[in-house]
Structure formats: structure tokens, C-alpha cells
Amino acid sequence: MKGNIKLSAKDSLGLDELKQHKPRFHEECLQFLDQRKQVKMQWLQDPKQSNVDNVHNVRHEATIHFRNKKKAYPKAKIDELETNSKIKNIRGLYKGINVFKKGYQSKTNIVKTEKGDLNTDSHSILAWWSNHFSQLLNVHGVNDVSKTVIHTVEPLVPQPSGFEVEMD
């Protein structure tokens, strides 16, 4: 039953991509998180004062580590910008400056349909965009184009007759 529910949910909703961790998040951070989790589980199983002190110490160490990583990341990015400036890598320099200037930009894949509904499924979004551009770029009613009146500054010159073409 559980497998069928998961399978039908995957078919109807699709797979959700895993959340990307921040670039400053490394294996050390994962080790601190695991250590913090293990110490907390020990404390929950045996709530002695020594375990409480151990939890506080590990939490404090993890917090300091995460805070230092968070502070070191912009410094490393600024050093990278300086090296790009020194080696005259202008593209990398301006790309890095724009990242700092714009900050975090969340990306959304949502399209509003003609009815006002919001589409979040990637297949329906692609179908909507292909339909939109096919309507926009394909000219319907080609016969009407030949019947349109062309306004020009110069008067229209009549087409040459067959006799005029043979003379040249």
C-alpha cells in the first residue's frame, strides 16, 4: 500500500529536487551536525547532568564553527574578486560583484495561464511556452498580408510590361 501511494504521488507530482546546501557548508559541518544529533540522543536516553553539559558544549562548538564559516565565506569571495582584478579577469570580477550586489535571488518556475491558474509542473510550463511562441511567431491568414495597402513616400511604379522587359 505504501509503495503504491509513493508511486502514484511520484507519477502525479513528479520528483522534488534535493535542496542545494550553501557553498560554505562542507563535510566538517555535516560532522558537527551528526555529533550534535548523537549527543542530543544520548541526553534524551539518559538525562544526567554530565550529558546536559556535554550537549551544551557540543552545541556551543557547533554554533561557533557555523558562525566562523559564515564569516569566512564572504572574505574568501572578496579575495577571489581581488585575484580576478589582479589577473585582469574582468568577466569573473563583474560576475562576482553582481552576485554580491544582487544577493540571493530565488528562482521560480511558475506560469500563469489564460484562465488565471498557476502552472508549476515543468511539462505544462514547456507546453504553455511552446503554444505561446507558436501563436506569436506563426503568421495566420497569409492571404490577408497580400491584400494590405502599403503606404510609401514614393508613388508606386507600375510593373514593366513584357515588351519593356524584352527591350532591355
In short:
The chain has helices spanning 2-13, 27-45, 49-86, 90-102, 122-137, 142-147, 162-167; strands at 111-112, 118-119. The chain is mainly α. Strands 1-2 form a two-stranded antiparallel sheet.
What summary fits the major beta sheet?
Answer: 2 strands, antiparallel
Q: Look at the structure and give the mean pLDDT.
A: 83
Strands in their spatial order, largest beta sheet: 1-2
Strand residues, percent: under 5%
Find the structural class using helix and strand composition.
mainly alpha
**Got a strand count?**
2
What is the CA-atom radius of gyration, in angstroms? 33 Å
Helical coverage, percent range: 55-70%
Shape: elongated
Distance between termini?
Answer: 87 Å
Number of contiguous helices: 7
Order of helices and strands: HHHHEEHHH
* Low-pLDDT segments, ≥5 res: none
Written overview of the protein:
By secondary structure, this protein is an all-alpha fold. Among the domains are: 20-102; 108-139, no CATH class. The protein contains seven helices and two strands, in the order ααααββααα. The protein has helices at residues 2-13, 27-45, 49-86, 90-102, 122-137, 142-147, 162-167; strands at 111-112, 118-119. It has a two-stranded antiparallel ribbon with strand order 1-2. β1 (111-112) and β2 (118-119) form a beta hairpin. The chain is elongated and about 110 Å long. It starts with a helix and ends with a helix. The model has no long low-confidence stretch (mean pLDDT 83).
